Amino acid sequence: MHLKSLTLRGFKSFASATTLRFEPGITCVVGPNGSGKSNVVDALSWVMGEQGAKSLRGGKMEDVIFAGTTGRPPLGRAEVSLTIDNADGALPIDYAEVTITRIMFRNGGSEYQINGDTCRLLDIQELLSDSGIGREMHVIVGQGQLDGVLHADPTGRRAFIEEAAGVLKHRRRKEKALRKLDAMQANLARVQDLTDELRRQLKPLGRQAAVARRAAVIQADLRDARLRLLADDLVTLREALRAEVADEAELKKRKEATEAELRTAQRREAALEEHVRQLAPRLRDAQETWYQLSQLAERVRGTVSLADARVKSATTAPAEERRGRDPEDMEREAARIREQEAELEAALEAASRALDDTVAHRAELERSLAQEERRLKDVARAIADRREGLARLQGQVNAARGRAASARAEIERLAAARDEAQARATAAQEEYEQLKAEVDGLDADDAELAERHEAAKQELSEAETALSAAREAATAAERDRAATAARHDALALGLRRKDGTGALMAAADRLTGLLGPAAELLTVSPGFEVPVAAALGAAADAIAVTDPTAAAEAIRHLRTEDAGRAALLLGAPAVPGTRTAADAD
Length: 585
What we know:
Residues 2-467 form the RecF/RecN/SMC N-terminal domain. GO terms for molecular function: ATP binding; DNA binding. Keywords: ATP-binding, Coiled coil, Cytoplasm, DNA-binding, Nucleotide-binding. By secondary structure, the chain is an alpha+beta fold. The chain is built from 12 helices and 9 strands. The strands form 2 sheets. A 6-stranded antiparallel beta sheet has the order 2-1-3-4-5-6.
């Protein structure tokens, strides 16, 4: 496996697409200062997943995008593609050639690709972890890092060698397995707490469910009893309603018959009144006749009295007077008078009979009229009584209907209460069953988590075995430390000659105020090397100077000798009592 090519587009100083092809046998890239050699190394680190802007010699990650020049505008994204020859199958992927691409946009978004397919940063890290060229593997040694390796104590140097030997991969796996174990243990504790809580809740819920079932049974019995009572009341009311309706129909019939009789009586009364009106003239005639007959009787009685008086007078009169009248005349006059009296008596008797008939007929008519009036009053009173009875019956019917409506409403309310009670009982039963199922599921999850815990333990054991093997490999590599240190010294010497820092240190005898590299001026307690190196970053390679005059002189020397760039730190010589980096927390 070897790096085949590197394509840069918009990365730092590479504005246009630039492809660097690494043929077999290429060991270095040379060029004048500012030609972009360090940018190529930064591109390699960046495409393999570097996330620290300081490691790429920048203040923020967007600084890797081409910022523009006087003749060219800035770009909106940076893209680097690294092509690796995988003919030997060193990478765990079924491709003979693998191209890893990283794209970053100025808005902060980024993309990762493997052979043109979008992927995650984790996928790239997993792919490169088995090859020894991952993001944190020590295959890329930047400026200033070599001094940290050379001046490290044996423990720190061993850590570097272990990571270079590929121990980091197993350490990550161990840490991942430990995190899984911790998470699994936390999940087990959480599941156990949930199980205990649910089991505590099951008992009161079971009691509540039993109480709810008993309450449902009691409510059902109560509802049935109420329904039976209401049904009996309903039957009774319906019977009473039917009887009342029958009575109402009978009364309506009787009312109609009474009204018909009333109408008949009214018609008879009207006929009698009409007959009385018709007989009134005859009655007046009879009364007039009676009056005339009475006068005639009085005259007859007067005439008879006069005749009697005359007879007496005639019988007692002197003979001379009796002799003065003719007896025959007197006989004829007496006969005439008797005839008139007979006629008057006959007329009087006929008039008396007619009057008696008229009076009797009138009395009969008056009795009939009084009788009809009494009957009319009785009928009116009966009609009033019937109407009162009908009103009373109507009130009873309305009351019965109201009771029936109330009974129906009560039945509906009880039915709704029954449905609600059944719904509550069903919900309680379902909740009980659900909690029971959850408890059963939690028991099953306990078994599954136990199995996963055992599997994680097995993975941890395998990781520890691999870690032990890696440590043995590191121990074997320690034997080659001297040769590696010699190579590092040679490389450091070459870097110092090509670097502005090296040029300044080489001219230290001619420049005043130079204190030396910042990393060499620090005294670090054992165990703090890595945090101090991370905190210093690129500042570890800076040259410490005593004052601004010395800094200006150093800068003039770099410009005069065209020795490149170097970082300067203003400081003062160490004096007794000064706190070291290990003491400054």
